[in-house]
Amino acid sequence: MDIVVGVADLKVSNRPEHVLVTHALGSCIGVAIYDPLARVGGMLHFMLPESSLDLSRAQENPYMFADTGVPRLFRECYSLGAQKQRLRVKVAGGSQLFGRPEHFQVGRRNYNVLIHGEDVGGNKARTLCLEIATGKTWVRTTDNQIYEL
Amino acid sequence: MSLIPQILRSLKNLPPFPMVAQRALMLVNKPELSIQELVEVIKFDPAITANVLRIANSAYFGLRREIHSLHQALLLLGTQELLKIIIASGATRLFANATPGYFSERHGLWRHSVSCGLMADLLARELTWAERATCFTAGLLHDIGKLVLSLFVDQKFAAIMEVVETQGKPFHRAEKEILGVDHAEIGGEMARIWDFPDRLRLVIRHHHLDCPESFSDNLVLLIHLADVLVLMFGQNLGREGLAYDGYPEVLKHFGLRERDLEKILLHFGCIWNDAQVFFGLIGSAHGLQCAHRG
User: Which of B266, B279, B290 is most worth mutating to test chain A (most A CB atoms within 10 A of its CB)?
Assistant: First the structure.
């Protein structure tokens, strides 16, 4: 069953029938984490890198920003039994427009606040999926290419 | 082989622009618009009247009391907001039968168009422009060329994307290379056939800023910026993703910095959920259900 993670949203699950899905990432980033032993996974869809942009909005909805959303993502998974050293982290999104690299940088800045990523940048729109039963993570682009991360 | 003759033939069969929306368009730039004039435009159209009441009562406006009549809606929301609802509502008839091509699902173009309208409105507010209904309308209609070109783009999509990927050209240039014409040119032609106000026609024709003259009109630049911000936001993205140019000149023109763009995206993200009621104007239940599908 697909569990949809909206824009500026977080979902975690330990139910093997669940697939967490976030649709159409532009410059936003989807982060999927998974503990294969506990079979616990979570997905965050954040919009912007830093909560300093608007602290009161960040308090209302911490999932809007990377710096407030990512720690929540980990905490929520720990509360379902995931352990830090076993967690695998996968990231998709952070697309950019064409053009000179010093402008319209939201996608790149979103990516740079995270440590590493596997399918970020470029100019494609992506949907990110995480299967809770297996931890399989894949990306579907809007031109219908599908690949595993 | 160029598809231009076929494309031009399909323009001959263009349906009329919905009448209520057409009449509302003519009122957008009228300096002292009376409430009575607006009521005259819509009072014989029950579907649009129902939409006005539905949107006026939605979380998007967050009014505290329930609105039961057109007059009450006009008094509480004002003519600019009402024009937005009337034009969006009238235009659904045009977008309802859009074929896939640019978008992998049926109402993708409608949702992208509404998003651009709302983003343009938000930018207008940010820049303290008075003509917010004009901005909304221009955002809503900027991509009408895609209504006609989608069938052709669908046939040639792989070839167009190959040009994008191998030559690093933005999508509309690749489109022109493969089809002989791009959606902005066709949209401009449709605006001429439908007798749109000149300024609106120019926005539609030049929203990808493809020639030096495009940079001379504020509204063209604003709609271009709204369009690329909507792409960056994601959601309801076309199959071509973000394969368009971002022009730093536009940011400079409006005195906007990267941080301002982030604030605008944040603001857009906050109104996004409440704005779903606009998406729902097209085939109600379906619109809401698919709101998150790209």
Answer: B266
Instruction: State both tokens at B59.
Output: 């979380």
Closest CA to B53 of B74, B36, B34: B74
Domains of chain B: 15-95 (no CATH), 99-294 (1.10.3210.10)
CA angle, corner A75, sides to A73 and A77, nearest 5?
A: 70
Find the residue in A nearest to B267 (Cα). A57
Per-residue pLDDT of chain A (149 residues; tens, 9 = 90+): 999 999 999 999 999 999 999 998 999 999 999 999 999 999 999 999 999 999 999 999 999 999 999 999 999 999 999 999 999 998 898 888 887 667 888 888 888 766 544 566 677 788 999 999 999 999 988 777 888 88
Q: What domains appear along chain A, each with residue ranges and CATH number? A: 2-148 (3.30.1330.200)
Compare all CA atoms of chain B with the CA of A93 and give the residue at the minimum distance: B234
In angstroms, the CA B47 to CA B61 distance is 20
Within 8 A of A144 by CB-CB distance, chain B residues are: 104, 239
